[in-house]
Amino acid sequence: MRRRALGPLAALSLVVWACGDGDQVGPPPPPPPPPAEPGPVDFDVTTSADVDDGALLLTVFGGPVDSVRGLAGYDVLDAPIATGARAIVYGAIVDGALLRVWVPNASLAARYSVRVDEGARRATYEVVPGASYTVSRRP
After folding, report:
1. What φ, ψ does residue 18 adopt, rounded to 5°?
2. Contacts of 116 by beta carbon, 8 Å cutoff, 6+ apart
3. How far is CA 63 from the centre of its chain?
4. Distances (CA, A) of 123 to 15, 34, 52, 87, 90
5. CA-to-CA dists, residue 113 to 53, 70, 110, angstroms
6. Distance CA 84, CA 101 (A)
7. Is the pTM of this model over 0.85?
8. What is the pLDDT of residues 53-82, one digit of tens each?
9. Sign of the C-alpha dihedral, residues 60, 65, 83, 55?
């Protein structure tokens, strides 16, 4: 009688073992995403026609910024902030290429924007309102 009681118990154990997760049948998990690739985001400026611009105070928004560099021969001083960076661009500023912002994830470039907080005239250092400028990201 004892042998008969062990038979069904052994069969039940075999069924439980066969239905367990040991097989892991199914599709494999997806691969991890590729690591973020750093890269540049370039910006152009449009200035008001009647101002001889010599410097711009800018704020870069969109996320972390590694550095800000001037294009077209402009000099730049930059400092990171929680939302991006602050920068001063100086030189004989004209319409066209202005900045290259280096970001840690170039696939997120569309998130970045630049605002001119204020400008300064070259000869008099007179402050020019930021609304006198338009900055656009290059595609």
Report:
1. -70, -30
2. 45, 56, 57, 58, 130, 132, 133, 135
3. 5
4. 90, 50, 8, 21, 13
5. 21, 15, 8
6. 10
7. no
8. 999 999 999 999 999 999 999 999 999 999
9. negative
pLDDT band of 35, cuts 50, 70, 90: confident
Amino acid 21: pLDDT: 56
Any idea which residue has 């990201």 for tokens?
137
Strands (E), the chain: 39-46, 53-61, 67-70, 75-81, 84-90, 96-103, 113-121, 127-129, 134-137
In one-letter notation, the amino acid at residue 131 is A
Instruction: Report the DSSP beta bridge partners of residue 76.
Output: 89
Token representation of residue 109: 């470039």
Residue percentage of the chain with pLDDT more than 70: 82
Task: Give the residue from 133, 31, 46, 27 showing the smallest Cα distance to 95.
Answer: 46
